Amino acid sequence: MGTQENKQIVTRWLEAVNSGQNEKILDLLTEDFLFKTMARSPEWLKYRWNKEQFAAAPEAQSTLLESPIRMEQVNLIGDGDLVVLEAQTDAYLKNGKHYDNAYSLIFQLRDGKIEEVREYSCSHLVVECFGEFNPDNPAAARAGKALTD
């Protein structure tokens, strides 16, 4: 697929995230999909998620927020099978913490599907707001204080 088609796939992913449609997210991912956070610290934040965990994350994260997570596109650039989405969020957790993160998401596509996503974002803010986030159990946090402060 060409750059424009791949950018459209990433745009569909963003729309599915913002509308809470896990099945649509799953439909855009390859069977061997991998999500990686590129955080350097803390060690537990170096997530490696499969497609099910990645698709579940927006809905699971939204359970901790005052309203569902929304990512706003800032820039979208591509070159062949590589698409980079610059995005931002601005939300409040139920515990009152402000989550206003900025992201660079690098999408690697293959045959019209997303094969890998590498996320660069403020890991300090993630730890402060969420603790150790687990899409399979969003209420459980390694840094329990992060969700209750």
TrEMBL record:
<dbReference type="InterPro" id="IPR032710">
    <property type="entry name" value="NTF2-like_dom_sf"/>
</dbReference>
<feature type="domain" description="SnoaL-like">
    <location>
        <begin position="10"/>
        <end position="116"/>
    </location>
</feature>
<dbReference type="InterPro" id="IPR037401">
    <property type="entry name" value="SnoaL-like"/>
</dbReference>
<dbReference type="Pfam" id="PF12680">
    <property type="entry name" value="SnoaL_2"/>
</dbReference>
<protein>
    <recommendedName>
        <fullName>SnoaL-like domain-containing protein</fullName>
    </recommendedName>
</protein>
